[in-house]
Amino acid sequence: MRIEDRFVVPFEDSFDAHYGLEFTDATRGRIQVRRDHLGPDGTVRSGVYAAMAESIASTGTAVEVVPQGFFPSGLSNSTHVVGEAREGVLEAVARCRARGELEWLWDVEIGPAGVAPTAIATVAIAVRPMREPKSV
After folding, report:
1. Which DSSP symbol is given to 48?
2. How far apart are CA 70 and CA 129, in angstroms?
3. Would 135 be classed as within a structural domain?
4. Do residues 7 and 66 lie in contact, with contact meaning Cβ atoms separated by under 8 Å?
5. Count of domains observed in the chain
6. Distance between CA atoms of 64 and 101, rounded to whole angstroms?
7. Which domain, by its residues, includes 123?
8. Is pTM, for the whole model, over 0.85?
């Protein structure tokens, strides 16, 4: 069974698709900055960075744990905006720092390719056993 077959919401209907996240692999993704990503000061809002970090870390975890009957769930997300972005493409790269039995810890750097990141995140992803959905 493919991992996508276990997801309840198809990607095209997900929040990630709504804000334009494109996965380049399980631990990398990018967005094209749009007007609706910008705050009143004209820079990308911190929530866009946090959403990217959470999604990339969750997906990186899912690739490993879903085939084993587990699912990832965001546990904590500490995203720090350290620069400014107003346009262009923002790329996210996640690196797993620790893989525990119940949670994984990720570092995610986000920014334009080839320059210093404009945001840095540490994301903890809980790993929980899958259960059959309850009927309503």
Report:
1. H
2. 4
3. no
4. no
5. 1
6. 12
7. 3-129
8. yes
| Residue 68 CA, distance from chain mean position | 21
Q: Is residue 134 part of a domain?
A: no
Rounded to whole angstroms, the Cα distance separating 20 from 4 reads: 18
Rounded to the nearest integer, the mean pLDDT of the chain is: 92
CATH code, domain with 74: 3.10.129.10
Flag whether 20 is in a domain. yes
Under a CB-based contact definition with an 8 Å cutoff, are residues 90 and 53 in contact?
no
Q: Which residue, 31, 5, 123, 127, is CA-closest to 85?
A: 31
**Is 136 a domain residue?**
no
Q: What is the mean pLDDT of residues 19-26?
A: 94
Could you give the CA distance from residue 26 to residue 116 in angstroms, rounded to a whole number? 22
Residue 22's Cβ-side half-sphere holds a number of Cα atoms within 13 Å equal to: 8
**41-83 tens-digit pLDDT:** 999 999 999 999 999 999 999 999 998 999 999 999 999 999 9
- Name 133's Cβ contacts closer than 8 Å, sequence gap at least 6: 8
